[in-house]
Structures are given as structure tokens and as C-alpha cells.
Specification:
The chain is mainly beta and 142 residues long. It is 9% helix and 39% strand. It has 1 helix and 12 strands, in the order E-E-E-E-E-E-E-E-E-E-E-E-H. The protein is globular, with a radius of gyration of 15 Å. 25% of the residues are buried. The structure holds thymidine-5'-diphosphate (TYD).
Length: 142
């Protein structure tokens, strides 16, 4: 079930690429990620001391790609934490619903491309970490 997801459900997926001495192409087609993309956005011009994220989603799947530069993604499922560095445009991080995430340590010029399974819905966010921990503990009882 979505809300029971663990940090270990968040995996790095390879993005198929067409290598070419003139420059490579990375292509994300349907089979690459386990959801249909309804929204695409990107973070850019992020100061090196800034932190993004700091929330979880109830239903949203996301796929994060460092299309340029690098940044760290800290994942937390209410019990375990894991920090993953994204720094390759042909690898992406799948984040399942019910995972707290914080993004920081952005390199100069880093761009974080995000494919999302839903349009923007503020009600899908859990922005308070205590509320998130309660959400996870209640859900794992049921
Ligand atoms: P938020 O998702 O909290 O940013 P991040 O997780 O990258 O730090 O969004 C920041 C603000 O932007 C918030 O007011 C909601 C708004 N927003 C939209 O209106 N649409 C979107 O698709 C996204 C991602 C954010």
C-alpha cells in the first residue's frame, strides 16, 4: 500500500540513452518509470546553502533527475533515512508516495527535473514532520 512505502522502495532507475559523439540523448518513455507523467517541473538557480522539499506526498509518485550538476536527496519513511546523491543525467530517483524528502547541497548550475504522477494538489502534501510521523505510524497500525 502506498502509505506504507519504505526508503528501500525508492530506487535509482537507468534512463535509456542514445550515445553519440555529437552529444547524448536520454529518453524517458512509458516503460522507464512505473507511472504516467501528468506534470513536469524543474528546480534551477538553487543557492548552494538552500534546502528544498521538506515534505511528503500522500499519493504522488515522482522521478527526479539531475539533468545538470548534482544535489543530495534525503529520504525518510518514519523509521529509516537514506541520502542519495544525484549527479548523472541518465539516472533518476523514483520516490514513492509516503516518503519525506529533503534536497540540498546543490552544485552551481544544478537542475533537478521532476516528473510527477499528478497535477499540483496542495492537499496531497504533508509539510509537518510530526504530522508525517503520525501519518506513517497510524497507517502501519491499520
Ligand atoms: P514545493 O513543492 O514546496 O517546493 P520544493 O519541494 O521543490 O521545495 O513548492 C513550492 C511552492 O511552489 C509552493 O507554494 C507550491 C508551488 N508549486 C506549484 O504551484 N506548482 C507545482 O507544481 C509545484 C512543484 C510547486
Amino acid at each position: 500500500m502506498k502509505h506504507l512505502s519504505k526508503v528501500t522502495d525508492c530506487t535509482i532507475l537507468d534512463i535509456p540513452k542514445i550515445k553519440d559523439p555529437r552529444g547524448n540523448i536520454a529518453v524517458i518513455e512509458e516503460a522507464v518509470i512505473p507511472f504516467s507523467t501528468k506534470r513536469v517541473y524543474y528546480l534551477y538557480d538553487v543557492p548552494s546553502d538552500a534546502s528544498r522539499g521538506g515534505h511528503a506526498h500522500k499519493n504522488l509518485y515522482q522521478f527526479l533527475i539531475a539533468v545538470s550538476g548534482s544535489f543530495d536527496v534525503m529520504l525518510y519513511d518514519g523509521a529509516d533515512r537514506q541520502t542519495i546523491t544525484l549527479n548523472k543525467p541518465d539516472k533518476g530517483l523514483l520516490i514513492t508516495p509516503g516518503i519525506w524528502r529533503e534536497l540540498d547541497n546543490f552544485s552551481s548550475g544544478a537542475v533537478c527535473l521532476v516528473l510527477a504522477s499528478e497535477v499540483y494538489i496542495e492537499e496531497d502534501y504533508i509539510r509537518d514532520i510530526t504530522a508525517f510521523e503520525l501519518f506513517k505510524s497510524r497507517r502501519s497500525d491499520s
